[in-house]
Amino acid sequence: MLTDYWYIACPSAGLLRRPLAAQVLSHKLVLFRTEDGTPAALEDRCAHRGMPLAGGRVSEGTVQCPYHGWCYDKSGKAVHVPAVPGGRSCLPDASVPAFRCVEQDGYVWVCVGSEPVHERPLSFAHLGEPGWTSFRMYNRFEAPVESCLENFLDCPHATFVHRHWFRTPTEREVRCTVRALDDGAVAEYFDEPREKSAVWALLAPSRAEMQHTDRYIAPSTTRVDYRFAEDKHYIITSSCTPVNERLTDVYTVITFRYKFWGRLVRLFFEPLSRRIIAQDVETLRQQHLNIDRHENRPFRIIEQDVLLPHIRRWRTSLANGRQPETKTDPYDVRIVI
């Protein structure tokens, strides 16, 4: 379990005046805002009787248990116990675990490990920058993180799961160059077909050259870039939060530059994107239901599963406390799309 990394616990807009329950890597958390508005994250359990603190309220920058009113500050210490004369806690163990918590890019991020590997979470590219238009999506996948990462960076499935929406089978051979990076791996595709696709008919109707890269950023982020002439650029970044071993919360930010037509393009691009990702949600749900039925029989990995070996290598290495070898030469893979 990769605990020493930042994961999104909730959107900033979802954490207002009341405490909020969240779950990251099987840790059940309560999130709340202190008096100055900064977020805090504690174990969602009162030290007194085990009541969930998320069912209480925020009182003067502390979270108050709904059972006996014990109040906890951002460090997890019980700072007010109403039943005790004077209201002070005299118990040395009257505290609950606290977790590192920061707010960035419109999200509340939590690290449930002892020390985060990085000082800050990875930023979403060009979010909020002038000339760029963005929208956000949230989806819960009934699948582990690794399956989500592979799905988001897998070209061949799009011709079947997203037929006519995103891709249509052309039986054309496409070259893909794969490079290892210091934080993951990237695949670049050349001369991809774009026929009979709603996405590209709307977003890139000309036959201008397309530069497409799929990037895995360890441990749990994907980034897909499409660049065109006339300075058009689309970026789909997905940050995966493991709820537990079988559930993943995916926070996706789509940011694009389309001259001065950005807001107009969003009117049809956003619902189209939501439909496409809903197809992936259902596909992974069906996949893992069937894996359960067949008692977790092993997967086959083929050369055209371009980035899956890198995803598995990185996540296994990091889980074992080491950095994987990244000094490998680029190599080509041929894929029929």
Brief sketch in words of this structure:
Helix content is 18%, strand content 33%. The protein is α+β, with helices and mostly antiparallel strands and 337 residues long.
What is the total tally of β strands? 18
Strand content: 25-35%
Low-confidence stretches: none
- Radius of gyration over C-alpha positions, nearest whole angstrom: 23 Å
Q: Taking all residues together, what is the mean pLDDT?
A: 92
Query: Order of helices and strands, N to C?
Result: EEEEEEEEEEEHHEEHEEEEHHE
Total domains, how many? 2
Query: Helical stretch count?
Result: 5
The percent range for helix content is 10-25%
Q: How would you characterize the overall build of this protein?
A:
The protein is of the alpha+beta class and 337 residues long. The protein folds into two domains: 7-111, 3-layer Sandwich (Rieske Iron-sulfur Protein), CATH 2.102.10.10; 133-336, Alpha-Beta Complex (Naphthalene 1,2-dioxygenase Alpha Subunit, Chain A, domain 1). The protein is 18% helix and 33% strand. It has five helices and 18 strands. Strands 11-17-16-15-14-13-12-18 form an eight-stranded antiparallel beta sheet, with helices on one face. It has a six-stranded antiparallel beta sheet with strand order 1-10-9-4-3-2, with no helix packed on it.
